[in-house]
Amino acid sequence: MGRRKPTVSKHAALFSDERVVVGVDDLVLLPSVSETSILENLKMRHAADVIYSYIGHVLVVVNPYKWLDIYGEDSMHAYMHKARIDVAPHVFATAEETYRTMLSEEDNQCVIISGESGAGKTEASKQIQNYIAGVSGSGAGVDKVKRTFLESNPLLEAFGNAKTLRNNNSSRFGKYFELLFDSAGRPQGGKVTNYLLEKSRVVKPGKGERNFHIFYQVLAGLPTAAKQKLYLDRGGPESYHYLKTSGCYDVDDVNDTQEFEETMAAMQHVGIKRKQIELVIQTLAAVLHIGNVQFQPETVGDAEGSSLRDRESLRIACELLGLDAAKLEHALCFKLLQTMAPGGKIESYEVPQNTSQAKSQRDSIAKAVYDRLFDFLVERVNHALDIEKKAEKHGEILEIEDMTTIGILDIYGFEIFDKNGFEQFCINYVNEKLQQIFIELTLKSEQEEYAREGIEWAPIPFFNNKVVCDLIEARRPTPGIFLILDDTVKTMHSRQGESVDANFLDKVAGIHGSHPHFSKRGKTFEIKHYAGDVQYNIDGFGDSNKDFLSKDIALIISETSNKLMRYIFPEEIDLNDKRMANTAGYKIRTQCEALVTALMDCTPHYVRCIKSNDQKQPNKMDDRRVIHQIKYLGLLENVKVRRAGYAYRGDYGRFVDRFRLLSKETYPEFRGSDKKGTQAVLRAAVKSLPQLETEVQLGKTMVFIQTPETFFELEKLREKKLGSFAMRIQKAWKKYFGRRHLLQLSHDITKLYTSNNKQRQRVSIYRPFDGDYLRDSTIREVVMGIIQHYGDSEKIVFMDEVQKACPIAGVSPDGSPIALVGRILIITDQYLYLMEKRTWQPVVDPKSMWVPPLVYLRRRLRLTAIEEITMSTLADPYFVLKVHQEPLLLEPNKSNWADNKSTMVCMATGKKFGLFNRRHHCRYTGKIYCNDVCKQLEVVPDLGFYTPVRVYDKVIGLMSTEMPEDQLLLSEKKTEIAVTLVDAIRSLASVVTPISFSDSIRLRRAASAGLSKTPPQQIQFVSSGHDRITGDINNVQIQVAPGVPDEYIRKRRKREKARRKKLERQREEELAIRAQRHAQRSREREAERLRRVAEKKAKKQAEKEARKQALTSRKSAKASMESVRKFGENVQSSSSNGGIGGANSELAAILARRRGA
Which residue ranges does the record annotate as region Actin-binding (predicted)? Predict the structure, then answer.
């Protein structure tokens, strides 16, 4: 109906694997269970625009009163083929579970959506339909079915929805939509059943509310010529009595003209012909004109009567409906009554109607016409979805018994108002029946499953509301309220208004006065429903229950010349017929019985809708109103029941598939049965979750876990394992991508080596490029902390430990004039880091304690400062980074220093400075600290401090302490480092860093000789029989063993190629074996599934046959009773209760049987 108002999406992360969970997704996991804790969790999630939560398999949704961008195709795909537990709570998850369960279990499904007006039931229903339409099969016929049932929504909303104080698009009828699917899951047809249309709205919408949308759409969207033809050109809604009394004509953000066009298009889509559409609009116009018929008082004989104030509106209405205006005028002002004369003869006489009674007659016509018109539209939708007629038309044979259905029930939620009447009584009765189904299908079936699986369990206590349902609907042994009301109406058919209502209340109180769930209070009676106590005012109960036209008016309508009117009022009226039409109570009981029968044949899924506030405002949660809904929706009871049973139950196969990676016995390959696999998983998990010992039970085909906390701890173990796998996958991908990306560069540098006669080490031949070689997790954590200190979020492309050549005084004991010290080399896509690792040993006893290794940053260098990479032509692991050098700063940089005078306290401890608490500027941060935390001395060359100065203790190790100068480094991975640096610098600055070769290198040292860490000698590379470093204060000679010959490289390449082929063959063979095992396991699981499906079908068929037999028995018993439905039969009353004890009363017969008569 176009009620959505798009807003900016906040849900980009809703469907991601790393989404942030607000509160708890499942209310069963709340630390403490109460209505308040449920409210707080819903409130927290609502504030974050997370409107969906679970109670086990029950979906709870809070209406946000704004459009959230979480229903598009991307959202739909995020839930397709996903288990409910793997995705965020969403109506799509419920729809997915419903659809897939129907396919896998070959069983009928239903979704029961409940909640009060404005809670979002209709929107939830439409989203479920949209999802199922999106994921089910396609084809010309299938797409037509989908289009029909989707287009039925705007059509039925136009005629069945209205603006109320609580909801701008409130459904004023209940709807059970059934879709029929073939074995492939493609929709083939369907059916719509409507319930409890609020006919009273046609004649009297509430103040500040609107009548049904269609009236305003017709007045806004109908062309001028058509309006003139239907006499609707005399003004807007304010010109029609049925529309103007409420004082509300418009709805925010709704264009009635545009809505009219959509409704007309929807009528065509569902197959309503153009002439039929014209007749429908003509009938709507007639209803508006009927409302404009007004009466004036008139004395008829000695009685108070009435007459028409103006005949024009009646004439127009009768013209449009094809009725005789004179006859209808007479029927409105005079009511035909019939009595039984002695001898069984029926005598008829007319009674003048006062203005109030005449208006009631007028309104009854309008309500009846609109009600039948609505039924006609539903019938047209059903005709378009009728699979049998479609098959018959195309000469096809359908096996409907092999098809399955998904039903979606969108019906009024439980209602408690300040004044509750007959409509609320009927609505709450239906909700009691739905609660009874919830108990029957959910709680009882859960316990039956425990017994069937042979596991130990404690009975779950719950309130069985059958006693309340019997109070309302029972026939025997004690008649229910509906039966008493029907009997009262029939025995007092000639009377109206308060006398009927009062008599009815007296009878109910007389029969049920001692019932624990019933009490009488003045003109009201109270019923203790499952959702709370409700007081019902009896005013209008009798008239509302009659729900039929008087026979004289029905006779006039039956003589209509209008084709549509003849179709929707097909009854033949016989004034001498003694039978009385069915009451509203009888109709709703019959409909409810059919609904219960349909639902009992399905596996139920539940959606509980909650409105966040009555003002329809976004971002607002009314605690009092939400608590009220939590109470009557029974959410607290749902949570308690779910926690009382087993929180998780699943097939062994499904459990193994989900958790097999927790055990080495089941991952990566498992060969045993699913049950043994489950046991293996639990044995592995119990090491981390010892509570599994007592909380898990293994049934015949399923595993049960008692508490939700334990199950979610198991889920966390799985997530942790997946996280470690993800890291391995990322690393493998990085390795693969790095090798692929650097393969060309490696090839280029190999050619460069060859052209410069560069010899190769054995270790460098066919060495893969991994990039990340730092294995120590403790060191890694400290290193990452230093990088993050600089806010460098750049991608790390290389990380490993290397050695750096540093000068020494004199010559080392082994004769080397230089020292090789350990460094950690990190290359990001913008910077190069050189860090030093130090390990401190305790002075007293090295074994008594362990001190984590410390890592100090020695140089942070921007990659563009590397001017050249130099290597020798020999087979050595050395390489030189030639670094651009900046001149020394003449003055230290103090631009970041805090003001000394205005700073009175230490910026770290908060201590005041004084005589015994001196202040110090940290030369690195520029902040001012006290002596307690600023004791360390360190050089800060980047800021011009070339001698040790005071720095804040906590920045030690975070700043560069060496100056930019050439670096002589040693690493077996020098080729990878060179390739990585060249590629990173080219990406950063679009320049190619040259790689040069020389066996004699002079390193450029730092401008401050005292801070230089680079050897001052000339570096000479010479070929020798072994690796060794010699020299003196002027020269360093690095002796290098010979490299591998070319013949070795060719043979190695050939062996590597053969090895890869062998591995590929082994992998293919292993995959084939795994595929065979998987196929066998799948066949075994499918056989088990089919066995369970057959067993379930047999049980359902037996239950259906039992219900059918019970119904046949009831009908037989009813047929054997004395007939009490004969209108006008002389009743001998034994009391003054208006016929309740009469011998010919249905109630009297029931009571007589109770007394043993």
Answer: 592-614
pLDDT of residue 743: 67
Catalytic (active site) residue 576: no
The answer to whether the annotation marks 672 as part of a ligand binding site is no
Is there a contact between 165 and 402 (Cβ–Cβ < 8 Å)? no
Of 75, 108, 114, 117, the catalytic one is: 117
DSSP 561-586: --HHHHHH--PPP-TT----PPPHHH
Residues 799 and 337: their CA atoms lie apart, in Å, by 100
121 is an annotated ligand-binding site residue: yes
User: Do 494 and 483 contact (CB within 8 A), yes or no?
Assistant: no
Please, what are the averages of pLDDT over each run of 10 residues along the chain (1157 residues)? 42 50 88 92 96 94 94 93 89 96 91 89 93 86 86 94 89 92 91 92 94 97 96 94 95 93 95 96 98 94 90 97 96 83 70 92 96 96 86 64 90 84 93 86 76 81 86 91 92 72 94 95 93 91 85 92 95 68 89 90 92 92 94 84 80 91 89 91 94 92 88 89 84 69 73 89 75 87 91 82 91 85 95 88 51 83 96 95 93 93 92 88 95 93 95 93 96 92 92 94 91 93 91 91 85 85 90 86 84 81 78 64 40 36 41 41
Fold of the 657-730 domain: Alpha-Beta Plaits (3.30.70)
The DSSP output letter for 75 is H
Beta bridge partners of 162: 170, 212
Q: How far apart are CA 458 and CA 645, in angstroms?
A: 8
Which of 108, 130, 170, 1014 is flagged as catalytic? 170
Active site annotation includes 864: no
Among this protein's residues, is 454 annotated catalytic?
no
Are 901 and 922 in contact, with CB atoms under 8 Å apart? no
Does domain 424-547+583-594+1121-1155 sit in CATH 3.40.50.720? Answer: no
Asked whether 883 and 984 are in contact (CB, 8 A), the reply is: no
1025 is catalytic: no
Q: Please indicate if the annotation marks 162 as binding a ligand.
A: no
Q: How far from 1000 is each of 619, 752, 816, 1019, 1042, CA to CA, in Å?
A: 74, 19, 17, 6, 18
In the chain, what are the domain boundaries? 424-547+583-594+1121-1155, 657-730
Residue 117 is a catalytic residue: yes
Task: State the amino acid at position 1111 in one-letter form.
Answer: L
C-alpha distances in Å from residue 496, one per residue of 397, 508, 540 = 54, 18, 9
The token pair that represents 439 in the structure block: 């108990």
Catalytic residue among 23, 118, 645, 957: 118
Neighbours of 793 (CB within 10 A): 9
Both tokens of 1021, joined, read 């590379």
Asked if 118 is an active-site residue, the reply is yes
- Which member of 23, 174, 413, 650 is catalytic? 413
122 known member of a binding site: yes
Cis omega (within 30 of 0) for bond into 668: yes
What is the reported pLDDT for 960? 95
d(CA 38, CA 24): 10
Give the per-residue pLDDT at 17: 46
Chain centroid, CA 792 distance in Å: 37
- Looking at this protein, which amino acid is placed at residue 371? D
Q: What is the pTM of this model?
A: 0.70
Of the candidates 1152, 1140, 1149, 936, the residue with the CA atom closest to the CA atom of residue 487: 1140
The pLDDT assigned to 815 comes to 80
* Helix (H) or strand (E) run with residue 404 in it: strand 404-410
Cα–Cα distance between 206 and 335 in angstroms, integer?
Answer: 28
What is the C-alpha to C-alpha distance for residues 136 and 155, in angstroms, rounded to an integer?
23
Catalytic residue among 122, 980, 1012, 1014: 122
174 annotated active-site: no
CB 796 within 8 A of CB 1010: no
Structure tokens at 468: 């309340």
Is 120 part of any known ligand binding site?
A: yes
| Catalytic residue status for 998 | no
